């Protein structure tokens, strides 16, 4: 019998194996719930299969840094987000837009799709860093819609739409990290991706202060999803100028 010819392993298979390993590790560390791990395997596999190491690396950078910040000084956080691990809904809220853009870019190569992908990741990163670091602020958060001169505009830490200077600085830093790595790995312009991340974070806070909880479907996960859409759109639009 003739030997079966061997060839390179399909990217889909490689992506599945790597995503499974990362997700299982994250489950053991309680960074993900069981259904969150399943969703992470799906997202990671599709992103790697369609975008390779660079795009998958950007996704892992967001997830790893955000998970570490969630655990960092958790005892000091009055309402630590994702303390029990990210669920499937939370994984998809932060990763679905990037996954779709990665797949679209593989089928229809276009520079804007790559920039939009990075903008979506930057938005998720900026929002998560703002939340996790902002919870450690000694200054009470203020609603983003209140205006800085109004009195009695402070809210409890962890309230949707509440912002602090510490959180804002963290958001700008997180977005800059993603923008810088995206420039190195994907060749995207720095400023549009950074601006997309900051815009997505601001949009998340605005939606959290105005529409979150006003209807059954406008949950925190829905707001996060819309914020990544905003970050992706902003980054892609700015590349035109």
Query: So what's the overall shape?
Result: globular
Assess the beta-strand content as a share of residues. under 5%
- Average pLDDT works out at 87
Which spans of ≥5 residues are poorly predicted at pLDDT below 50? none
Helix count equals 7
Along the chain, the helix and strand elements come as HHHHEEHHH
Specify Rg, calculated over alpha carbons: 18 Å
Number of domains: 1
End-to-end separation: 61 Å
Structural class: mainly alpha
Strand order of the largest sheet: 1-2
Note the main sheet: 2 strands, antiparallel
Number of strands: 2
Instruction: Summarize the amount of helix as a percent range.
Output: 55-70%
Architecture overview:
The protein has 241 residues and is mostly helical. The chain is 67% helix and 2% strand. The protein contains seven helices and two strands; from the N terminus they run ααααββααα. A two-stranded antiparallel ribbon has the order 1-2. Helix 4 (111-134) packs across helix 6 (190-210). The longest helix has 38 residues, at 34-71. The model has no long low-confidence stretch (mean pLDDT 87).
